[in-house]
């Protein structure tokens, strides 16, 4: 892996106490954080931190057992009722994290003899859930509805059929064609599951996600989302009809055979949900910053998608170039990591920039200037073309 520049290393963040979440300290050096999923800056909101402290004081530090044993503290009920109301669905179920939600839900709802149609760029947790389910796995080309329809027609006879997609793709920052997916769901009598990990908090009137923004949430059989990104905390949830949620309570192995979340996490999630619903200015700010950073990069000659999401990839291709680029960014005071295979397809290594609501215009302009200087340096040295 080292020879192919694929071995991973991580940095120790020595301080993340900056209240906006936009600056971190690594190796004694302050870095502008352009790689955080804390899109709304809620991870450092003191109301959320305090709510976690209060929940820990009242309920203790640990979940103590699976929810099906005695880990199902009343805080869970409150959170799930509020989630269901927010998402306008009959019921909700909280999981430990997004990885466990996707693996647990897909493996429970699909099985041998079923078919799952999954976008080629879906998150790894979706892929792993399908593998665990033992259903037939059909990967359609990214956002290619013709290819999906071709596969749906070809495998019409599967016992039960699911289409699964991210709503905003985690490494590309583009959106799934949800309106068309809903049409195919209806036409081919399939079920549809949408992972809103990167859209929750960021899209929709009250941050419910892209399905709500487009008015199709009622047509999605399972809406999944996380608390780990725009909510700034930890955990995940699915919202669906009562019957599906009740089934998952018994059948989702990642829920049944794992300890309940620490009460502090649930307390913080409750506080974060309130702020996500009310603070629409944060959503506006992150969208404006996304548009601005994309435009700034374009004005310096970079190729950047016409999108409005906070995930902004700069695809360089080669693993080694991308590592070099990321290293130089760090030397110049910017934290933005190199994303390499297998997280992204071979030959598409990239710097994945993410912007947050609290980034200022000056910070983004300065960052863009650094990105373009590094490109010029590496081009001169013949490292990148
Ligand atoms: C689209 C998507 N789904 C699921 C997950 C997993 O969520 P979590 O980090 O809460 O495990 C992530 C993020 O890592 C993601 O990007």
Structure description:
- The protein is of the alpha/beta class and 385 residues long.
- The chain has two domains: 13-40 and 280-380, Aspartate Aminotransferase, domain 1, CATH 3.90.1150.10; 50-278, Type I PLP-dependent aspartate aminotransferase-like (Major domain) (Aspartate Aminotransferase, domain 2), CATH 3.40.640.
- It is built from 14 helices and 14 strands.
- It has helices at 46-59, 67-71, 74-87, 98-109, 124-133, 145-154, 178-187, 210-213, 242-251, 253-256, 263-278, 280-299, 319-331, 361-380, and strands spanning 13-15, 23-26, 29-33, 91-95, 115-119, 136-140, 161-166, 191-195, 222-226, 236-240, 311-317, 334-335, 338-339, 349-354.
- The strands form three sheets. It has a seven-stranded mixed β-sheet, sandwiched between helices.
- A hairpin with a 7-residue loop joins strand 1 (13-15) and strand 2.
- Helix 3 runs parallel beside helix 11.
- The radius of gyration is 21 Å and the shape is globular.
- The two termini are 24 Å apart.
- The mean pLDDT is 96.
- Pyridoxal-5'-phosphate (PLP) binds next to helix 4.
- The modification N6-(pyridoxal phosphate)lysine is found at residue 229.
- It catalyses: 6-carboxyhexanoyl-[ACP] + L-alanine + H(+) = (8S)-8-amino-7-oxononanoate + holo-[ACP] + CO2.
- Its cofactor is pyridoxal 5'-phosphate.
- Keywords: Acyltransferase, Biotin biosynthesis, Pyridoxal phosphate, Transferase.
- Pathway: Cofactor biosynthesis; biotin biosynthesis.
